[in-house]
Each structure stands twice: as C-alpha cells, then as structure tokens.
Amino acid sequence: MTERPAYLSATADAYDAVVAPYVELAQGALAQVPLDRAVLAAFADSVRADGAGTVAEVGCGPGYTTAHLRDLGLDAFGVDLSPAMIDHARAAHPDLHFEVGSMDALDVADGELSGILSWYSLIHVPPAELPPYFTEFRRVLAPGGHLLLGFFESEGGPTAMFDHKVTPAYRWPIDDLAALARKADFVEVGRMLREPQEEERFRRGNLLMRRQ
C-alpha cells in the first residue's frame, strides 16, 4: 500500500478539527453569492444536456454544495478526505451518498462520471503535486464529461501559498490552471473571475472544462 502524502494527512486532520465552525461558515454561503450559483447552474445545465449522469463533488466538506447539485437536478455524491466532515454530511443529508476518499484516487470506474465539481478543494494541493489530479479526473469522466473548478485566483501574481483559515492553500493564475487541465486532455468551455465580497480576501476563479 502506498503511504499517503503528508499534505493529505495534514489536510484531513485540519478539517477534522474544525467541523463545527466550518459548518457554521459554510451553511447558507451560496445564498449570498449569486455569481457562484450561476456558475454551478451552468455546470448543472451542461451535465443535464448531455444525459444527466452521475456527478461527484470531490472535496465536498459538509456536503452543502453536493446537496445544491442535487437540488439542480443532478445525481450527485460527495467525497472528502476528512472523516469528520463526511460524518456531518451524512447526518445533514441522509438522502445523499458520501464517502471518505482522496480525489487523486477515486473509487470510481473508468469513464463512469458525467461531471466532477472541485469547489475550493484543489487549493490545498501543492502545485508540483497537482497534475496527477487532472489525470484522475480524466480517467473517471466519460468522454465529453464536465469539470468545474472553484479556486482562489492570484490577481496577476504567480501561484503562491497563503494562510488559509484551516490549512495552507494556494492561489493560482487562471491561465496556468487552465493550461494544466489542457495537458490532461480537457478543453475550456468558459471561465469567470469575481472580485472578493466583504470579508473575503481574494478574487475567486472558476473554470468550466470538458473532457475530450
């Protein structure tokens, strides 16, 4: 068995330790950000237009965004490194499936998924470790399947670590992240940048990609 990289163990432990305050912060967050809801709706529309197969939210945390995908008409399930977050997600959304796992080694057959949502979860992956994640996303997505990324954008600077409230994370130039996805055989469908709202520190980025 391959030993889990230290950054994955550190991320899981950090989120296990903050379930209650994180849940309080995350619950209802989408209601405050119409642009985020619009991007998620566009992702859901794209998946439904191609037959509405199964969608995974990778790095689902307490499951609120997975439930939002369900409310948008998708057959969605969630995966997260943190057992404590998965316990909360299962209790809060007993009608949905959640499992503990890592998004670089999903327990999903080749080509099984119609969509993947990574909503501020790749942010904790060190840049040098990120390419295999896109390779894994390509493996589990059917040809033509959809990938939506949510991340902190670097606002003209290079990829850089910052002091995320839970555990260290990275801000990415949107062009650089799109280029990494292209190397894994994804094509860009669209992108969005939004400026930080009150009490947010950084610009937010979204990339909607399609597997070739």
From TrEMBL:
UniProt keyword annotation of Methyltransferase present: yes
Single Gene Ontology BP annotation: methylation
GO molecular function, one term: methyltransferase activity
Keyword Transferase assigned: yes
UniProtKB keywords: Methyltransferase, Transferase
Top-level taxon: Bacteria
Listed PANTHER family: TRANS-ACONITATE 2-METHYLTRANSFERASE, TRANS-ACONITATE 2-METHYLTRANSFERASE-RELATED
Protein name: Methyltransferase
Species of origin: Actinoallomurus iriomotensis
Organism taxonomic ancestry: Bacteria, Bacillati, Actinomycetota, Actinomycetes, Streptosporangiales
